[in-house]
Amino acid sequence: MTTMNDLPRDLVEEILFRVPLTSLGAIRSTCKNWNVLSKKQIIGKKATAARKQFLGFIMMDYRVCSIKFDLQNEGEFVDPSIKQVDILNQVEISRVIHCDGLLLCVTKDSSRLVVWNPYLGKTRWIQPRTSFHRSDRYALGCDENRNHKILRIFGDSGYSQDFGYEIYNFSSNSWKVFYATPGWSIEFCHPQSGVSLKGNAYFLAQTHKTVEAQMRGEVLLPFDFRMEKFRAELPLPFHSYGADSFLSLSCVREEQLAVLYEGWRCGHTVEIWVTNKIDLGSVSWSMFLRSISSCHLSPLGRSFFIDEERKFGVVFDLDNEFPKNNTPCNQTANIIGQDGYFKSVNIREAKIYRKPHRFGKILLYYLQPLVCSSSYVPSLVHLQQINQPHSG
After folding, report:
1. Residue 236 banded pLDDT, cuts 50, 70, 90
2. PROSITE patterns per the record (predicted)?
3. Which residue, 12, 173, 255, 373, could crosslink 98 as a Cys pair with Cβ 3.0–4.6 Å?
4. What is the Cα–Cα distance from 342 to 392, expressed in whole angstroms?
5. Cα distance between residue 46 and residue 50, in whole Å
6. One domain, residues 38 and 80
């Protein structure tokens, strides 16, 4: 009787290549040979394939989902597959941050954090030192020894004296608190105001250095997880002053940053810039694409990623921003290309949410999809669950 171990190695590798990312972890326990081959898929062929297709995770309706699809040369959004992640079904998630094959998830009620390794199928719950708040900003990173850490930014850096940040260290299971008086503020309202790259974090921030002009300019703000401190601001490749524009950050694999600029001052303009070089002390940019068209994206926080080979940007959005008389709304993937190319593809119908508002009114809203990784490469990092952390 033929067993899986009797099959040709090339055939087994092809089978493993077609297995969903979130199921590869179960294969490791089948036998030693499958364990070795599954790791090869993670570091070799699987990682290479991730550069050529969109394979990652997206938050939709407060749930984390895996997403996989192909984008053809004509901008066709082919065979999208979106599946809810079962291991996180017990909680609603409001934000997701990706770094080094790990996902940091913030619960909707802001009571806890959970770090999830999709490949190993393991989670680690992080309790607050005192408490979390819905306006906190987060990042996930690591130092030069691959010790993973969580950055939590609390307070209003623009107006409050109670601004600071704290670091959770996975290896010591402890929080360390820092206070600061910065010359910048980090926007909370844009979910994609910060991303992790090469173990460090980068945020979109507003510098206060142009107060004499009564304007605050946008900058790129690095956070060094090795030194556990913010570094000097880096320039963006354009001038933006908030009211007339929208910005969003994204990672290009784990090698480059991309920034989306959308402006309405002189018609509707969308620009996407990509870093040629970036580190904690310097950055250089090149234009990826620029489009002037009549397409309209909502002015709220959006997420996006790019297809380098085909020169497309994919922006996730809603086709109906404001609920009115229970009007149907779709979560969409908007494909933007050169020469004004624009195509909107419905992913699925958005749920309508209700929350109490002032004077007894009920506020209706839809939730935008938030892509947190589009070229995910699984990680072999183990997450050991530890009891309540202590402060350091």
Report:
1. very high
2. FBOX
3. 373
4. 51
5. 6
6. no
DSSP state of 187: -
- Could you tell me the two tokens for 26? 């179960």
Average pLDDT of the segment spanning 233-242? 81
Q: Which letter, b or e, does each residue of 4-19 get, where b requires 16 or more Cβ atoms within 10 Å of its Cβ?
A: eeeeeeeebbeebeee
- 234's CB contacts (< 8 A; 6+ apart) are 202, 219, 220, 221, 222, 278, 282, 283
Predicted structure pTM score = 0.84
Cα gap 33→40, rounded to integer Å: 11
For tokens 């819905």, what's the residue? 134
Domain that holds residue 14: 1-50
- 132 shares a domain with 105: yes
Give which of 247, 242, 191 is closest to 368, Cα–Cα.
191
Answer yes or no: are the C-beta atoms of 122 and 382 closer than 8 Å. yes
* 45 and 62 inside one domain: no
Q: Do 18 and 57 fall into the same domain?
A: no
Q: Are residues 56 and 116 in the same domain?
A: yes
What counts of helices (H) and strands (E) characterise the chain?
4, 28
CB proximity list for 325: less than 8 A, separation 6 or greater: none
